[in-house]
């Protein structure tokens, strides 16, 4: 079994589509979004308080459990699918 962890930056609709596509792939045992553990500091005393947040998309973490022989194919497919939906992927680590 191989665990693939990645971050996806972009629209929520693209992330949901990526997750749905991964669920249907051969060799994928589990694919799920990880909880956002980063506190979002929105300090009302900050110099940036009230400014527009235009980061270009949200960042979401995803964990995929894959049967080892399929791991490379799943990584490649995830990158292809992400491109179709306007996401940028960062593969964090595999083990």
Structure description:
- The radius of gyration is 15 Å and the shape is elongated.
- By secondary structure, it is α+β, with helices and mostly antiparallel strands.
- It has a four-stranded antiparallel sheet, with helices on one face.
- The longest helix is centred in the last third of the chain and has 14 residues, at about 70-85.
- The chain is about 25% helix and about 35% strand.
Biggest sheet character? 4 strands, antiparallel
**For this entry, what is the oligomeric state of its chains?**
single chain
**Strand fraction:** 25-35%
Which strands sit side by side, in order, in the main sheet? Answer: 2-3-1-4
- The coarse overall form would be elongated
Helix run count:
2
CATH class: Alpha Beta
What is the CATH architecture term?
Answer: 2-Layer Sandwich
Regions with little confidence, pLDDT below 50 for 5+ residues: none
Helix content: 25-40%
Number of strands: 4
Could you please say which CATH topology applies here?
A: Alpha-Beta Plaits
The ordered string of helix (H) and strand (E) elements is: EHEEHE
The total tally of domains equals 1
Structural category is alpha+beta
Give the distance, in angstroms, between the N- and C-terminal Cα atoms: 9 Å
Mean pLDDT: 84
| Cα gyration radius (Å) | 15 Å
């Amino acid at each position: 079994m191989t665990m693939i962890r990645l971050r996806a930056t972009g629209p929520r609709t693209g992330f949901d589509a990526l997750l749905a596509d991964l669920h249907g792939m051969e060799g994928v045992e589990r694919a799920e979004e990880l909880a956002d553990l980063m506190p979002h500091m929105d300090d009302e005393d900050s110099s940036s308080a009230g400014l527009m947040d235009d980061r270009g998309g949200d960042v979401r973490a995803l964990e995929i459990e894959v049967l080892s022989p399929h791991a490379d194919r799943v990584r490649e497919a995830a990158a292809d699918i992400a491109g179709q939906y306007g996401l940028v992927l960062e593969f964090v680590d595999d083990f």
